[in-house]
Structure formats: C-alpha cells, structure tokens
Amino acid sequence: MGAAYIVDSEKAKLFYGMASEAGEGKTVIVGHHNPDGDCIGCLTGMEAWLESAFGKKGVMIVPDNFPDYLKFMYSTDSILVFSRQKDRSRIGEAIARADLIICMDFSALSRTEGMGELISKSGAKKVLIDHHPSPETFAGLVFSETEVSSASELTWWILNALGPDSAIPFKAKESLYTGMMTDTNNFCNTVYPSTFLMASQIADAGVDREKIQMEIMNSFSEDRMRLMGEMLLNRMRMYPDLKAAVMVLDKKAKEQFNYRDGDSEGFVNLPLKIKEVEISALFTETDGFIKVSLRSKGAVSVNRLCRRYFNGGGHERASGGRLYMPVEEVEGFFEKCLREFLHSGE
Ligand SMILES: [Mn+2]
C-alpha cells in the first residue's frame, strides 16, 4: 500500500467529529463556479458518505449550473444552484444556520461567486478539501494537497483514513471515481501512484468504469460535437514562434451551435495534441466578462501567466481567469502578454 496518499489521522478524526456533531440538514457542502466533474464528484461523494455514516442529509450548493452529462451521479437533482433565483433564499438560510461548511475543489472564496460573503459570515465550522496551490485561510480545518489528481482523490483518502473503505458507500465510490477521472482528463494529466491505487480499489468494489466512461466521454450532443469541429477548423489560431494556439468562443458561435453549459468542456486541451503546441488558450465570451482557460504541456507555468495578466490562477499546467475587454481584442492582448511573459524568462 506504499502508493496510498497518507492523510494526517488527527486531522481526519477532527473532521469526523465535526461531521458527526453537525445537525440534520446542517452540513453544507460547497463547490466552485463552473462546476466540473471533480466538483460534482466530490460534492455528491461526500454527501453519500455523510448520509451513510451518520444518517443525516447535508445540503449541496454550487454557484452556477453544471452540465447535463454530470447528472448521472448520486443525488445531483438535489444540488442547489446559487444563480437560480428560486434556490437563493434556501441557500442563504442553509449557510446561515449551518453547523459545518465543507468547501471542496477550490482554494479561494471568490470561486464561489456571490456566496463568499455568506460563507465568511456564517458561524459554522469550516473545512477545506482542495488540491489547488496557495489556499486562503477562511477554513479552520484544511486538507490541501497539490500532489494528488483531484479533490475527489483527496476526499477518497480522507474517507479511507476514517475507517475501512467498505464503509464508503458504493454511490460515493462512483462519484469520486468520476471526479478523479475527469480531472485527470481520463488518466492523462496529474496522475500519481496514489491515483492508480484509488482507481484500483474502486474498480475492485465493482464500480462500472465503462458506464462512467460512456456517461462522460460519449455523451456529446450533436451541437457540441459540431461546435468542436468549428473551433478546430475555423477558430484556432497558431502562434508558431510562441508554441501557442488560441481559440475564441464568442457569443455568435454559441448561438449558432445552441451552446449549453459545459459544451466547451475539454476544448482547451485539444490544441495540445499538436506536437509543436505547448500552450493552449481558450477565451469564452460570457455576460460581463471573457472567461480565460489556459493549458500547458511544457515548462511554462500558466498559473503564473494567469495570475499576472488574466485575473486568475490555478495549477501549473491548467489555469483559468477573466478578462474585461471586447472579445475582438482578446487575441491581440494574449499574444502581447505571452510574448512579454516568455521574454521575462518566467
Ligand atoms: Mn479539481
């Protein structure tokens, strides 16, 4: 079992105590803006575990909507969405009266959009479970580790530290496996020996990996598939001297292909399949700002690039941020910034 990720057992016990003491409906589990597979995976995995360990339901909350292809996971229809008007007051109440708030898969409260203040103000105990660098200090108990594949993997090892994995319900295993699988881009990026061990243990429990694979990888809509074609054929610009590729997804293209939340998930990884491309950027026009996604397959830290120019950050090879400028100006701005950044030798 040398590959297992070792969780501090004192911290794990503290977490167990907090979770067992929290009242019915008074554990709130919070995910991040633009919820992805890892976010929904660890939220629903944690909820399934809480229910089976203590017989108490928690409240799962995300800032905005998540894609349909994640809805096969446990209890996703009970997840409250802050950007939905009808969920707002329930979310406000749940956070205000919570005994315990578990923040998962983000390191900064700004990633919860408008909920950061509600969370800060709440008198609940706060736990952070995350795999991004430099976590903020809003939580009293922090499980933060960048040397794991995903927040779902970290959750797996925390739950394992609390008892035998037979005590982790099947539904939680399915969710945590999905979170790990999506965050590693199907075992391509940030995979550690501990990640394979987790996968092996979960496979051993009989989780249907083929089914999960189908749900995640082979459930595109026709519109999403054609949008991907459009992006690659007509909207990918190459910068050979910078070893970079840039794609811009503007509102016009979104309309043309009936864009839905999550439709561009994974697009930013595609240019990295080109041998010469080491940095890939995807800019997505939304209401009020341009969403920035950056990926690297070489030595360039897109985390630092993002922090310096794009109002964001993340991991060394996968980061995100925001720009506030007309969509037509984004490509030129990116080129200028990247040139300066590479020149500065960072
Ligand atoms: Mn993650």
CATH superfamily placement of the largest domain = inorganic pyrophosphatase (n-terminal core)
For the terminal residues, how far apart are their CA atoms? 38 Å
What CATH architecture label of the largest domain applies? Alpha-Beta Complex
Figure out the total of helices: 12
Number of individual domains:
2
**Numbering strands along the chain, what is their spatial order in the largest sheet?**
3-2-1-4-5-6
Question: Which structural class should the secondary elements be placed in?
Answer: alpha/beta
- Please indicate the percent range of residues in DSSP E strands (runs of 2 or more): 15-25%
Q: What is the helical fraction, as a range of percent?
A: 25-40%
Rg measurement, Å: 20 Å
Primary descriptors:
inorganic pyrophosphatase (n-terminal core); alpha/beta; binds manganese (II) ion; 2 domains
Walk me through what this model shows.
With 346 residues, this protein is an alpha/beta fold. The protein has two domains: 9-217, inorganic pyrophosphatase (n-terminal core) (Alpha-Beta Complex); 222-343, Diaminopimelate Epimerase, Chain A, domain 1 (Roll). 39% of the residues lie in helices and 16% in strands. The protein contains twelve helices and twelve strands. It has helices at 9-21, 37-54, 85-96, 116-121, 151-161, 170-183, 193-204, 209-217, 222-234, 251-256, 302-309, 330-343; strands spanning 27-30, 59-62, 80-81, 100-104, 125-130, 141-144, 236-239, 244-249, 279-285, 290-296, 313-314, 318-323. The protein has a six-stranded parallel β-sheet with strand order 3-2-1-4-5-6, sandwiched between helices. A six-stranded mixed β-sheet has the order 7-8-9-10-12-11. α2 (37-54) runs antiparallel to α6 (170-183) and α5 (151-161) packs antiparallel against α6. The longest helix has 18 residues, at 37-54. It is globular and about 55 Å long. 44% of the residues are buried. The mean pLDDT is 95. It binds manganese (II) ion (MN). Residues 38, 105, 131, 150-151, 183 line the site of manganese (II) ion.
